Amino acid sequence: xxxxxxxxxxxxxxxxxxxxxxxxxxxxxxxxxxxxxxxxxxxxxxxxxxxxxxxxxxxxxxxxxxxxxxxxxxxxxxxxxxxxxxxxxxxxxxxxxxxxxxxxxxxxxxxxxxxxxxxxxxxxxxxxxxxxxxxxxxxxxxxxxxxxxxxxxxxxxxxxxxxxxxxxxxxxxxxxxxxxxxxxxxxxxxxxxxxxxxxxxxxxxxxxxxxxxxxxxxxxxxxxxxxxxxxxxxxxxxxxxxxxxxxxxxxxxxxxxxxxxxxxxxxxxxxxxxxxxxxxxxxxxxxxxxxxxxxxxxxxxxxxxxxxxxxxxxxxxxxxxxxxxxxxxxxxxxxxxxxxxxxxxxxxxxxxxxxxxxxxxxxxxxxxxxxxxxxxxxxxxxxxxxxxxxxxxxxxxxxxxxxxxxxxxxxxxxxxxxxxxxxxxxxxxxxxxxxxxxxxxxxxx
Length: 445
Prior knowledge:
By secondary structure, this protein is an alpha+beta fold. It folds into 3 domains: 90 residues, CATH 2.40.50.100; 60 residues, E3-binding domain (Dihydrolipoamide Transferase, Irregular); 209 residues, Chloramphenicol Acetyltransferase (2-Layer Sandwich), CATH 3.30.559. The protein has 8 helices and 19 strands. Strands 9, 12, 15, 16, 17, 18 and 19 form a 7-stranded mixed sheet that branches. The chain has a 4-stranded antiparallel sheet with strand order 1-8-6-3, with no helix packed on it. Strands 5-4-2-7 form a 4-stranded antiparallel sheet, with no helix packed on it. Helix 5 packs across helix 6 and helix 5 crosses helix 7. The longest helix is centred in the last third of the chain and has 17 residues. This is Dihydrolipoamide acetyltransferase component of pyruvate dehydrogenase complex. Belongs to the 2-oxoacid dehydrogenase family.
């Protein structure tokens, strides 16, 4: 007889206490191997696939897609092993533990066992009995007059599609996807939203004059997952860090020329962001107090020995800050390759929590949005952030004559507890000098 083992949501690190189920990757009755990913969840840091430590047959799943579970709560149960040493099959697996049973007894890293959450069982009608009525659907829903509400997991192409449906109160189970095997695409959801908003409303019979209507309530978007984490961190930064910002315009013509020459020489291409990361690493070596954090409990500034540069990346799930480890030990080409790898992982939702934490300094290239300047909020608990605006042709006095040059505005926001304006100004001026004369970097190596 196989033994049913319970697998709970594991500790995903960095103080994370909950995760939202994005997509189930297995069904009840499926045979899974040890360490096979069984569910995709979204934490405050990233979207990750969770592997199951047991091999066997899935006997139960706990939690629906879109539901948030606490760490340590049951995810699924798996029937593992058998007296003859054979892998169990769906036909030989006993029922999952009944409600009221104690914890499974398994212990995973980071937390102990706890009592199982209330089991949700699907009641199957007896042969010939009428099926249960479908869940209520808005009259304007873009489906048939009598919509069919599908049970079980919903195949959706991305978490963004699921979020759009939640924001507009759309039940994905009444939609039929136009993608392969009924996969619900973003276009399916957008059409459904449009149909709901444009559907005619049946006029009611005349009634007595009603009291003045209250103002319509706006759309409520839950602050959770990555967006919630960003909101909490930025709010904490504003509450705790007495920041200040200084600006400078710099002529980036020579920097762009140097990049063009590097890329023309062959080999992997070097990005502008990688050049700024290289400049920041050199500037932090000259002004190490800006590569620090403040220990408020002990009243100390902690100057950090390693330089881990984070860079802001906009994704469909919101703003994330991947971190380039040991930036001070990497060449410009290595920085460019790592930034490219992390950017691609951010866009595909494949970043791990470890790749989003541990930064000591942040580089924010808001110039990609076509703006010149900004006053960035420091990425708590760091001490400084460099903002880079767009590089655009402007009139500039060059060697005593007016000329059209490629100009960029740099903004530097710093924690005034770790340094004064002289140190911050020195840092920013060094960065600007490297932008205007890249050869200055040769003196900083």
